[in-house]
Design a protein that fits this description.
Elements: H1 6-10, H2 20-71, H3 77-104, H4 129-149, H5 156-179, H6 205-223, H7 244-261, H8 281-311, H9 316-330, H10 339-362, H11 371-389, H12 392-398, H13 416-445, H14 453-458, H15 460-465
Helix pairs in contact: 2-3, 2-4, 2-7, 3-4, 3-5, 4-5, 4-6, 5-6, 5-13, 6-11, 6-13, 7-9, 8-9, 8-10, 9-10, 9-11, 10-11, 11-13
Length: about 500
C-alpha cells in the first residue's frame, strides 16, 4: 500500500501556506487512516471467504454420511453414520494436535512440517485460525472416503485407529509435499520447483482423493468382500444399498460442498491481477466453480447413457457415483483449465470409473461405495488431466512469482508438468501403501479389523450399536420395518 510522507508533502505547499508542516501531517494522518481501513477490509473479506468455504467443505461430511447410509443395507445404517461422525470428531482432535503442524508448520524441510503443533503461535503473519479450519475440513474428507470402502464389516475400534492415523499423519505428510511452501513438489516452493513446475494439484485430486481411495483399497483388500457379495461360483451378487433417496440427498450435498472444496482453495478472493480491472482472482474463483460443475455434469450424463447401454437400466445410484467421479477428477486442475477441457475431464472420468468397477468385479474386490475406484481411479485421472490441459495464462495467474512455468502438454507447455504429475501418482500410491497397508494388516492380525460372520450376518446396528436405525413404536413394531424380528429395548425415544 502507498505511504504518505509529511515532509515530502509539506515541500509542495506554496509560500503563502502559514503552517505547511501541520497541514501535511493532518492530510497524511487521514490518508494513513483510510489506507489502514482498506488493509483491514481486505483481511476481513478474504477471511470471511475462507471461513465460508470451510463451512461448505464441512457440510460435505453430511453428504458423505447420507451417501454412505443410503449405499449400505438398512441393518448397518447406524454403524456407518456413527463412523462418519467419528471421522470428524477424531480427525478434529488429531489434526489439531499433529496434522496441521506436519502439513503446514513452516519453516520446515521438504518432507514434513515441524511447527505449530496444537496451533502454537497461531495466529501469525502466515496463518490464521480460519486456515486451520479449512484444512481440517479437507483432512476429514479424506478419512470419510476410506470409511466407505470398508463399510458393513469393520470393527468400530479399527475406525478409531485408522481415522486418527490418517488425519494425524498420513494425509498431512502428503499435503505438505504438494501444498506447503516448503514441500519438495509444491508449486508454491518457488526456490526449488520440482522439474521446474512443481505439482499443480489445486484442490486435491491426488492429495485428498487418491489418499482416501488408496487407503480404502488396502482396507477392503485385507478385510475381503462382504458375506454374500460373491457366490460359490465366484459370480458377483449385488448387495444393494437400502435407500436411493439418501444416496441422491448425499450426492447433492456433496455437490454443494464442492463449491467450497474447489473454488475455496484459492483461500482468498480479493486479489486483483491488474488493479482497477474487472478481471481478477474473483474471476478465477468463478471459472473454477464453472469447470467443477461441467465436469460433474458431463460425467453424470456419460454414466447415465453408458450404464443404459451396458445394463439396460437408467440407474440413479450409478449416475450419482459418476457425477462424484467427475468432481474428484476435476479437483486437481479446476483452476487452470478452460470450461471446454472440464467437459473432456468429466467424460473420461466416467469411463475410468466404469473400467475400475469392471476390474474390481473381475478380481472380486468389494467396495460398497466404489470409493477406491471413484476417488482413487478418477483422482489419478484428474492428476494426469491437469498435466495435459493446464493453460499457460491460468497457471501464471494462479501460481504467480515464477514466469515461464511448464503447463499442459496438449496446450503446448511441454512434458515437464505431466512428468511431475506422474511422479505424484507414484509417490502417493507408494507412501499410502507403505503406511495404511501395514496398519490394516496389523489390525487384521490382531483381530481388530473385521467383525465376526455372525455379527455381519445379523447386522452391526443390532449387534454393536444396540438397535436398528429405523425403529417404529406402533402396532407393527415387532415387524421392524421388514428387518429381522427382534425385540429392542431402549431407554430413550429415537428420533
Amino acid at each position: 500500500m502507498p505511504t504518505c510522507s509529511a515532509d515530502s508533502l509539506a515541500a509542495m505547499f506554496g509560500a503563502n501556506t502559514t503552517n505547511a508542516a501541520g497541514a501535511a501531517n493532518f492530510i497524511c494522518d487521514q490518508f494513513n487512516t483510510v489506507t489502514t481501513k482498506f488493509i483491514d477490509t481486505t483481511y476481513a473479506i478474504d477471511t470471511t471467504y475462507l471461513l465460508f468455504s470451510a463451512y461448505l467443505v464441512f457440510s460435505m461430511q453430511l453428504g458423505f454420511a447420507m451417501l454412505c447410509a443410503g449405499s449400505v443395507r438398512a441393518k448397518n445404517t447406524m454403524n456407518i453414520m456413527l463412523t462418519n461422525v467419528l471421522d470428524a470428531a477424531a480427525g478434529g482432535l488429531f489434526y489439531y494436535l499433529f496434522g496441521f503442524a506436519f502439513a503446514f508448520g513452516t519453516p520446515s524441510n521438504g518432507f514434513i512440517g515441524k511447527h505449530n503443533f496444537a496451533l502454537k503461535d497461531i495466529p501469525s503473519s502466515v496463518f490464521d485460525y480460519s486456515y486451520f479450519l479449512y484444512q481440517w475440513a479437507f483432512a476429514i474428507a479424506a478419512a470419510g472416503i476410506t470409511s466407505g470402502s470398508i463399510a458393513e464389516r469393520t470393527q468400530f475400534v479399527a475406525y478409531l485407529i485408522y481415522s486418527a492415523f490418517l488425519t494425524g499423519f498420513v494425509y498431512p505428510v502428503v499435503s505438505h509435499w504438494f501444498w506447503s511452501v516448503d514441500g519438495w513438489a509444491s508449486a508454491s516452493n518457488l526456490n526449488n520447483l520440482f522439474l521446474g513446475s512443481g505439482v499443480i494439484d489445486f484442490a486435491g485430486s491426488g492429495v485428498v482423493h487418491m489418499v482416501g481411495g488408496i487407503a480404502g483399497l488396502y482396507g477392503a483388500l485385507i478385510e475381503g468382500p462382504r458375506i454374500g457379495r460373491f457366490d460359490h461360483t465366484g459370480r458377483s451378487v449385488a448387495l444393494r444399498g437400502h435407500s436411493a433417496s439418501l444416496v441422491v440427498l448425499g450426492t447433492f450435498l456433496l455437490w454443494f460442498g464442492w463449491y467450497g472444496f474447489n473454488p475455496g482453495s484459492f483461500t482468498k478472493i480479493l486479489s486483483p491481477y491488474e488493479s482497477g480491472n474487472f478481471y481478477g482472482q474473483w474471476s478465477a474463483v468463478g471459472r473454477t466453480a464453472v469447470t467443477t460443475t461441467l465436469a460433474g455434469c458431463t460425467a453424470a450424463l456419460t454414466t447415465l447413457f453408458g450404464k443404459r447401454i451396458i445394463s439396460g437400466h437408467w440407474n440413479v445410484t450409478d449416475v450419482c457415483n459418476g457425477l462424484l467421479g467427475g468432481f474428484a477428477a476435476i479437483t486437481a486442475g479446476c483452476s487452470v483449465v478452460d470450461p471446454w477441457a472440464a467437459v473432456v475431464c468429466g467424460f473420461v472420468a466416467a469411463c475410468v470409473l466404469t473400467g475400475c468397477n469392471k476390474l474390481a468385479e473381475k478380481f472380486k474386490y468389494d467396495d460398497p461405495l466404489e470409493a477406491a475406484q471413484l476417488h482413487g481411479g478418477c483422482g489419478a485421472w484428474g492428476v494426469i488431466f491437469t498435466g495435459l490441459f493446464a493453460k499457460e495464462k491460468y497457471v501464471n495467474e494462479v501460481y504467480p512469482g515464477k514466469p515461464g512455468r511448464p503447463y499442459g502438454l496438449l496446450m503446448g507447455g511441454g512434458v515437464k508438468l505431466l512428468a511431475a504429475h506422474v511422479v505424484q501418482i507414484m509417490v502417493i500410491f507408494g507412501f499410502v501403501s507403505a503406511t495404511m497397508g501395514p496398519l490394516f494388516f496389523i489390525l487384521h492380525k490382531l483381530k481388530l479389523l473385521r467383525i465376526s460372520p455372525e455379527d455381519e450376518t445379523a447386522g452391526m446396528d443390532m449387534t454393536r450399536h444396540g438397535g436398528f436405525a429405523y425403529v417404529y413404536h406402533d402396532e407393527d413394531s415387532h415387524k421392524n420395518n421388514g428387518l429381522p424380528t427382534r425385540t429392542i429395548e431402549t431407554s430413550t425415544t429415537p428420533t
